[in-house]
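Hey, weird one. I pasted the DUF4350 domain-containing protein sequence into the form twice and got a warning about non-standard characters only the second time. First submission, copied straight from the form history:
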Amino acid sequence: MTAPTVPHETPTEPTEPVQPVAPVEPPRRPAWSRFLRHRATRWVAGVLVVVLIVLGTVAAFSAATAGQAENDPRSSRPDGARAVAAVLEQEGVEVRPTERIDAAVRDGAGATVVVAYPDRLSDDQVRRLLEIPDARLILLAPDDGLSRFVAGVESRYVDGSSVEPGCSDPTAVRAGSTTFAGGRTFRTEAGSSVACYRTEDGYGYLRLPSTTGREIELLGGGWTNSTVAVDGNAALVLGLLGSRERLVWVMATGSGPSGPGNETAPPPTVLPPWWAVAVAQAVVALIIVGIWRGRRLGPIILERLPVRVRASETVEGHGQLYHRLQARERAAAALREGVVRRLGRRYGHGNDPMALAAALAERTGRDSRQVYHVLFGPVPDDDDQLLNLAENLDDLEQEARQP
């Protein structure tokens, strides 16, 4: 008899070869992200910020210095005339600063025309200003070029002492004494309609015929921001310049013809013509950097402190801070305020120091003056006195609370 045999199964070969599984790699950041994380990017961001700050500073400086010329009604510098212009505008006078002779001729008819730099004008500009119809023409501190406006008048520098009007002109009489510090005086041998504020060197204000026969006025000083508030300068200047509804303030500084209308060239600027584009690019770059860094930092999250701070630690911290700052006055006030507040609630005299001191003296058996000195006395001079004050306050409070 033979044992049954177990059938033997032979392994079968797979029909398809098994492909090896490749390891899964984590997703790679884009190339631009890896670049932004590079250390050099911090330098780029820093440079962009510095460039933006520099450009912003230059732009702010340019804006702040615009209209900051001497005698300019838009300038708030000491040698500007913004104060006079502001008061005139409040009084209803329309002030029109201009650097163009064409604009002065167009707007000056029937108005007051003030010339800030009469010595720097060309002969043709002088002629055109003298031909403005029905204009009150006032020259501010003319010097070398005065002969082109009026003949026989000499201009001199004056230090500036208080001078009485010495004339019958209503505006000068109302203004009273004036001081033209750093201004001009005018001496003339010819006749004049009005001559006021006479000094040994000449007059501070003249009204006389010009070379064309019309009257012009010469003003030696008193209109700048630094001098208008001296003596009667404000009353005189405002009376002269504000006599009509419109004031044209000519700031033209050309020394000769410069084309049609003899307009002066625009004032120079400290900024190159491409500064606006550079600022725009810097702003865009700053926004990009802000978005990049802002996404990494995330929003601000408010959370509670994980531990509680004991009251004793707070007191010790305040004490160390007061000691470091030598703030004995503040420390003494804090100690006294606490004791006065607690005892005032207990005895009902928190708002009356004398009554509180009397009540505590009666309660503790101490002298009321000594109690008042402890609660409301002078500030300690040193740390030892501050320590003694703290001990006295503690003793007083303990005695007052005893049954």
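That's the output from the first submission. The warning seems to come from a hidden character in my clipboard, not from the data itself. Residues 311-401 form one domain.
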